[in-house]
Amino acid sequence: MRFLLRRVVFYALTAWAAITINFFIPRMLPGDPVTALLGRMQGRIDSRAENSLRVLFGLDQDTSLWQQYVDYWGLLLRGDLGLSFTHFPTPVADIVSQSLPWTVGLVGVATVIAFVIGSLIGTFLGWRRGTWADGLLPAATFFQAVPYFWLGLITIAVFSVNLGWFPSSGSYDRGMVPAFTGEFIGSVVYYGFLPALTVVLSSVAGWVLGMRNMMVTVSSEDYVTVAHAKGLPERQVMFGYAARNAVLPQVSSFALSLGFVVGGTLIMEMVFSYQGIGYTLFQAVSTHDYPLMQGCFLVITLSVLVANMVADLAYALLDPRTRTEDR
Amino acid sequence: MSQTDTSTQAGTPTAAVPAEPVLEIRDLSVDYGFGDDPTHVLREVSLTLHRGEVLGLAGESGCGKSTLAYAATRLLSPPGLITGGEVWLTGRDGKRADLLSLSDAELRAARWRDIAIVFQGAMSSLNPVFRVERQLVDGILAHRPGMRRAEATERAAELLRLVGISADRLRSYPHQLSGGMRQRVMIAMALALEPQVLIMDEPTTALDVVMQRQILEQVMELRERLGFSVVLITHDVSLLVEVADRIAVMYAGEIVETAVARDVYTKPRHPYSAGLLGSFPPLHGPRRELTGIPGSPPDLSKRPPGCPFAPRCAHAMDVCRTELPVLGRTAQAEEGRLVACHLHTSGLVDGVLPGLLAR
Asked: Of B78, B111, B125, which is closest to A222 when you measure between CB atoms?
């Protein structure tokens, strides 16, 4: 339990630091949001509205930085991330909470699939090292080396433009109303298949290579030889002794990659115009929508932190050596 | 289980030849590396272990002792390759089988049940992520499919008590045990199925001297009780003189001398054995100067013709540099001992044999 408590305190501190930095960075940027908004609207907002906007943004009061910081925390804890400029006056929290499930669902599932398949293939390749199985390694290296956007464009060109099997963009049939019906879910899966496939293809090779190399290392450990000498069935030695230990470093990088699910799929969502958090961030950046950017950054930072925490816990669960004992 | 039929108290081996061979290694050859120019690490090694016997295998680092243990149990991993030979194991039912020609399933069944191994790395022989209990139990269950888990756990607890560890250590992970305890766990694990042969590959190198002694004494005591045979591999000849019945001395992938332990100590017949004995302090009697062996072990990949020990041997003759000596009788034609040395075969009369080898 002390181990757990220490980790929680550590992550609370990190989260505080991240949020604080997230608070200060926009305040260090030149210009002010009202002028930026007026500039973007290009006369569609009456210049007389400027004052009311200032009031709305809370810029009329001359509050100290410290007071702003305290207020920021207060708003944050109530889930208020401010208003978006581009989707004015939609709250940032609404936009983020609408796009986040799409990313987490699509890329999260794809990442899990890639990890499971990649680790299984890697286990097999590592176990059969020195045989024909090593011939599959160049293919894995190829998929790892291919730039993601290129892979995405090629799949779109082949499967949606030429063959017409899958749609090239979007996340569900626009003619449907989002609801928990079989039809709608089917449509989501259909639209998500191609982006998920590219995510799996581009990341599975990394898992294969990582797992294979760890298997080769672990297979020469004494305890694997002992397991053989004990006359255990080969499958048991392979999974229980070799793969069970080889998967440990994989698990920590898996949890980290879960953290990057939220932030790291920007290119995929751009290529497929998928309405996830990456696409939202992309739009926010291209339209100078600072509140939205700040909201996206906050979500991305927190998700990396949560993933790290999950990694720590999973590692402690899988590797008894990392657990510190209560005495 | 058959008790030892030869009187074998640890430390006082008898010269009598024990009855039945339980493990017979014949002309075992091992290469390292593939292709046209592999390194011959073992060259037609033959060795017999009799029932109830403690056979010591001595030699410098890199002479092939461990390779012999791995090859005889088919645990050798690439680039090690068994290129010839037979390993005959006499089962409990008296049936003999060649381990090297068994099918994978038959081999798996014979492993641990008939022949168990304790490896040198006490710290790394246990799977770090499983509790001791699980690692003892899985070996038992793999060979006794009908056994219930609770029974196997009970057996595991019994095994730990056998090696002097309290049964509540079953719930420990390997990293929570000391090196000595881990090696005891390994010994307990090796005895789980009451094997006939226990191969111990430098079982105490990772441990301190006091622990070494304790563990070896415990193994010898268990051997008395359970009646298995032991192959003890070590570079520590003084240790072997104490605990082994017979000693085989290896040099450069070959056995150069086999004899009853006490005879190797008092009357070495191979110049290399004599050199080994000269390199550690005597157990009893007046202190003498330690001599050591000049030079270093040969590079097995660039082996000159003739006796591999010739470049380091004080008594080397012309024939030693051209012809490989084979294991044969000693010049004194003693019962039960063999030596591979031209000094003993080239028709020399007793008087010409160097004094050290003629005692």
From this structure: B125
